[in-house]
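Researcher: Good morning. I'm working through a list of sequences from a screen, and I'd like to move beyond sequence-only analysis. For each chain I'm collecting a predicted structure so we can compare shapes side by side. This is the next one on the list. No need for commentary yet; just the structure.
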Amino acid sequence: MVMSPMMMGPMMMSLVMMTLVIKSEKNKDLCSKQDDLHTTGSCSYVVHAAKKAKTNGCPVVFSVLYQILHTHKDGSVVNPVVKAKMMMFAKVIGKEHKGRIRGVGFGPNPSGRSSKSALTAIKIHSSQARDNEVAQLKASMTTVEEKLASFDEMKE
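Model: Good morning. Structure tokens for this chain:
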């Protein structure tokens, strides 16, 4: 049975309040030590990326999203530490190449480009393969028909 604060004794109330104060002070201390602040609020990066992609009409590159979420509306950086990180990252990694995303790796990675051209290439390749198979089946069908006709002639 859960007891309401009014039903608890004064000693229990003081213990609960002391615990809450200790937790609150601990969280304030940890929060003050954070360097990488952002303006996302309670929404995750994924939610912000989906919203931005919906307004732009195309997927958002991670580096662009990082800059959006770590700057205020007026364009100022949230924290000088974040600005230093962004500048250092750009200096070490270099400029971002078209169609690539920094820090994702060497393998396949998501890009802001449309996959329409890739799908078109796949469709063309599959239609060519289908056409080749149909041509082979037609050729084998004609040979089977010729053999059947020759067997019919032998019977007569």
